[in-house]
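Annotated sample (chain length 492).
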Amino acid sequence: MTQNYAQDAQTLLQLVGGPGNISAVTHCMTRMRFVLVDPAKADIKDIEALPSVKGTFTQAGQFQVVVGNGVSDFYNEFTRVAGVQGVSGEAAKEAAKQNQNPLQRVMTNIAEIFAPIIPAIIVGGLILGFRNVIGEMRVFGDGTQALTELSQFWNGVNSFLWLIGEAIFHFLPVGIVWSITRKMGTTQILGIVLGLTLVSPQLLNAYSVPTTAPGDVPFWDFGFAQLPMIGYQAQVIPAILAGFTLVYLERFFRRITPQVVSMIVVPFFALLLSVIIAHAVLGPIGWTIGGWISGVVSAGLASSFNVLFAALFGFLYAPLVITGLHHMTNAIDLQLIADTGGTNLWPMIALSNIAQGSAVLAMIFLQKRDTQAKEVSVPAALSCYLGVTEPAMFGVNLKYVFPFFAAMAGSALAGMYSIATGVVANSIGVGGLPGILSIKVPSMLNFAVAMLIAVVVPFIITWVVGKQRGLDKVGAVDSVQADGLQMPTPRG
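Output written by the structure step:
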């Protein structure tokens, strides 16, 4: 049954400053996204008091109101009562950039490049995890045989699923270059073609380069020069550099070419020059930069200070999500996977998500008599354990503050254990409890222990602090200001 949002939509319109203060409005899966002319006019306290609203935050120049799964109905009602025209998500992002500083714009651009391809990467991670379970877990024949060695059916499944895994990870540059051309508004098919030239079967596979003697690397011989025929399978930085080169070359030729011949001249010269530059210059440079990045991160995670690094990363990852800086980790993870065959960074991200969900779980038990609170916290905890943290973070943990810090502490301890025991993931996966499927088989037991830490520590801290503050008493809570933060205090 569809909820009636008419009253809340009307009230929200006034609380954000009225129609004149709305530069753009759109929505995503759980949130209303506003680009406000004057963000200071938004009455955050009263907005968060609305029955339909689970929290608010500002990110990437957009004032975002967490509504939940009914956001599309709320959005339709809001645009009706407001008399404003909604815009596409892309248009809202562009409008929001006027409120961003240079660093935020860089992070937004990175996020917009990777966002369209993340679903495929998650699927690939799950598939690699499942292949590990049936092909690497030797739990049969006194611990000497995997399922694929006992069953021709599962051996066939294992082989067949690699078709998808290879398409996602080996051909990742195709998706990256396509996403860049899509974001920048240039010809997307040219991006796809350029990406394919980076991973063509004619080229020496990137995974074979380290084990191939220099004299055995194939090359194109132009008489006056030779160009190594090296592929860039799974490489992130070369694909990003090549993609932006294509974009700016296409824009350049479109600007200087007469309209009557632009359909022929522009794509021909933009693509041809991009392919040449990608293989002659940008590919080797990008490979080197990518190697440096993964090398620095790997060295940090393998150094004598790795546990300290893990504690810091685990503690700060959730705040990074609020700023949007966490999107940089996607590129780092993918580069680590390409260079080392796995990533020990992503498991800590999954643990951070689990920790946020566990803090909410404690709030559910503390407020078990508060029906209104559980309407927010129960679905928030479920979505968090499945990898979507925003309802939990903005709807519960940041609202009360101390659960957020409890989750950060649990994430730090879980991350320390993960790094100390050498947990490695095959790929990016679902950033919650199902994330264990993306972990390499030898690391699964230790990751399970890290998950237990991420569940227990935030739960206990939140429970103890919540009990001290009387959140387990019957009834709702009022808010008082404490140290500049919204802190709850029991009513009655």
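Annotation: Residues 307 and 416 are 5 Å apart (CA to CA).
Annotation: The two ends are 35 Å apart (CA to CA).
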